């Protein structure tokens, strides 16, 4: 309650700032964003940090309002108090449902084609290994969030019906998990990665197992966009510019977001770095829209209070087409990650080219990360490293979800080592490959370093 009260007071102070009072006739733009939801940084945290929007709108008073989830942004937009906001796929559906046609989705911030931005974690010492083990358990989730939507679909697919969902804001839910008030935590980027990195959570479900795209997007008040299309154009051009900066400077971008949010840079880079879990691309892709249509029935499962959703009316790419230029259609058709891991593996001596294998290691004090051609080559690099490893990243051998090497479940298969985000994933591989064996991360490092 104290946290919510403090947030409300801060927002009130922002809304009644001295600078606004001093310039009552200056046109305004109010932007709602989620600083720690780092799949939205190109329309939020990173965009604000770079100052691109302010440079494009020097005559405007721009107010940034920060929230933990998308629900309050929707409420403020419907009340006419936020003009442009960014949020996840399920909150976007709720936005469309609640707004009665008064809002429109105009761009994407980032996406994952398999759903890997949403995950379920449990305490590190929990006996829970799969979703099936959660029967009868309490699971913390932000009701109506992208993480909640994934949980609903995943439980249905697994045939688990006895789970009680406890509605929490992400930081409150994290505390509930640590205190034992809930047995699991279902959330969106970057909370699961944060808990895993801090040793406070263990991943049991990777949203990529659903193989349903998940994404975040930019939404505007329709009346504001019609009245001030130049402002929407400026915002989208600034978002495109921030996206380009992230692609060209992934490590610097991660460090900027970390500085602004207090999140560890290693966690931000897991999602927003080269071959990150999130692919940043503003275009409104048909495959993402199809996923949104797939999600609509689950909205009713979350709450019968949500009305119908007219996605045809909600989607409007006309503003983005104008801001983007001639490459819009070709880039819309592409799902290639513009921020790829490239270069030459310094230990294995081979080119890094296959995104299904490409890995990275971040050595303390290094100017940039170091590419690895495969998870096995990454292990060899770490074993040979003379400096402290800040973080090492590997793609799940089945889904491609990028994860921390030291948090992965490792399998030795022949001469190679394969990482998996969850025990479920590793078990499926072991079942299909009887000769393969599970191995600890420490033993995998030793074996790779010994060349065995």
TrEMBL record:
Residues 1-21 form the signal peptide. Residues 113-253 form the SsuA/THI5-like domain. Transmembrane segments: none annotated. Gene3D superfamilies: Periplasmic binding protein-like II (3.40.190.10). InterPro entries: SsuA/THI5. It holds the Pfam family NMT1. Keywords: Signal. This is NitT/TauT family transport system substrate-binding protein. It comes from Nonomuraea soli. The lineage of its organism: Bacteria, Bacillati, Actinomycetota, Actinomycetes, Streptosporangiales.
């Amino acid at each position: 309650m104290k946290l919510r009260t403090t947030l409300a007071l801060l927002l009130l102070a922002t809304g009644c700032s001295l600078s606004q009072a001093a310039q009552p006739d200056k046109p305004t733009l109010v932007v709602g964003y989620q600083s720690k939801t780092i799949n939205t940084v190109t329309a939020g945290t990173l965009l604000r940090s770079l100052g691109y929007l302010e440079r494009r709108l020097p005559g405007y008073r721009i107010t940034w309002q920060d929230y933990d989830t998308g629900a309050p942004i929707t409420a403020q937009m419907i009340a006419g108090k936020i003009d442009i906001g960014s949020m996840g796929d399920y909150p976007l559906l709720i936005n469309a449902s609640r707004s009665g046609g008064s809002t429109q989705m105009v761009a994407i911030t980032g996406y994952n084609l398999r759903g890997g931005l949403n995950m379920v974690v449990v305490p590190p010492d929990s006996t829970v290994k799969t979703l099936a083990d959660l029967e009868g358990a309490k699971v913390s989730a932000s009701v109506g969030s992208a993480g909640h939507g994934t949980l609903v679909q995943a439980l249905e697919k697994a045939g688990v019906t006895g789970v009680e969902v406890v509605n929490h804001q992400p930081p409150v839910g994290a505390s509930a998990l640590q205190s034992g008030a809930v047995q699991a935590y279902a959330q969106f980027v970057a909370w699961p990665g944060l808990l895993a990195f801090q040793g406070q959570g263990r991943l049991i479900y990777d949203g990529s197992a659903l193989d349903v795209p998940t994404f975040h997007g930019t939404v505007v008040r329709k009346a504001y966009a019609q009245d001030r299309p130049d402002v929407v154009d400026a915002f989208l051009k600034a978002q495109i510019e921030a996206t380009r900066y992230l692609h060209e400077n992934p490590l610097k971008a991660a460090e900027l977001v970390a500085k602004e949010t207090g999140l560890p840079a290693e966690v931000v880079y897991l999602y927003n770095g080269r071959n990150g879990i999130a692919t940043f691309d503003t275009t409104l892709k048909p495959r993402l829209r199809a996923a949104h249509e797939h999600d609509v029935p689950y909205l009713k499962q979350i709450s019968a209070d949500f009305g119908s959703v007219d996605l045809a009316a909600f989607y409007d790419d006309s503003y983005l087409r104008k801001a983007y230029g001639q490459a819009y259609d070709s880039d819309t058709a592409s799902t290639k990650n513009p921020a790829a891991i490239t270069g030459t593996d310094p230990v294995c001596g081979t080119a890094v080219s296959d995104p299904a294998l490409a890995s990275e290691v971040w050595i303390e004090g290094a100017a940039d990360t170091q590419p690895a051609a495969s998870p096995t080559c990454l292990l060899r690099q770490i074993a040979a490293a003379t400096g402290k490893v800040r973080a090492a990243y590997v793609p799940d051998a089945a889904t491609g979800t990028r994860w921390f090497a030291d948090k992965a479940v490792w399998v030795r298969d022949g001469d190679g080592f394969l990482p998996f985000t969850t025990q479920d994933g590793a078990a499926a591989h072991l079942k299909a490959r009887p000769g393969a064996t599970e191995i600890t991360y420490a033993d995998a490092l030793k074996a790779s370093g010994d060349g065995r």
